[in-house]
Predict the structure.
Amino acid sequence: MALQKEIWINSIIENLFADNSFAARSVNHSAFVNDKTVHVPNAGSAPSVTEGRSSFPASVQTRADNDLTYTMKEYTTDPFRIPNAEEVELSYNKRESIIRGCRNALADKVHVDLIKSWIPSSGFTKLATSGSAEAAHAPSATGTRKALTAADVLKMKVEFDKWDMPQTGRCMLLDAVMYNQLLSNLNAQTANAFLATADASKGIIGNLYGFDFYMRSSVLSVVAAGTALSSTEAATDSAAGLAWHEDYVSRALGNTELFDDPNNPLYYGDIVSALVRAGGSYINYGKKGVALLYQATA
């Protein structure tokens, strides 16, 4: 019987992770990542203005400013053991693959939590979608939800206009399903204009009504009424996108620290793990500049 040759490719197919380029559109607090708590002072009420003042002396006011705080979090990976045999016998570099996987897994978890941190725990602005019935796609969700439409994006623009948000710096992050719902709702002329504004180098996939759009595989899940983020997967959950202005949310991202214990005598190989510190928050005490766009139950 003839011997058949087997070939082992000297590289490995890595895991896939979501795009996190949206995070660059925020105030960078990374200089404070090694502190425990970040304080973001917010100015109190603006002064009253009187036309044709005739009563003197004028009443003197005291402005009470607000202190918005958020804390840093520490993220760690489970350690991996690299047996000595795998260091010398494999056709690919497993150590390099594990280290890359640790970095990517940490970044994925950090950015998932960063999105959630930009939403206040209560009292935030939310708008419901209004399109045709589509299958629900939030984890564990069942039934149908209303698709995202261009009219819904326009409603969000109106909210930002009422806040006097600057016209530049407005962003929107959608999951893959909501993004494609929006794209299918646009007419040919609007779709062409939307796609023509894409900037791949910055992760921007289009611009509509003044919002720069970003996409990742998943964004947020909310309870049916959109009043809170979903804490446990439920059949009544809905997917949601996030709209924000880049001057009204923050990020603090630290460097990934690698822990490497080579030639460990107890495990007869190397032990590798990683750690990163990170945090972020909405930074307007009045909870302006950030809003949810959630899929209403159809």
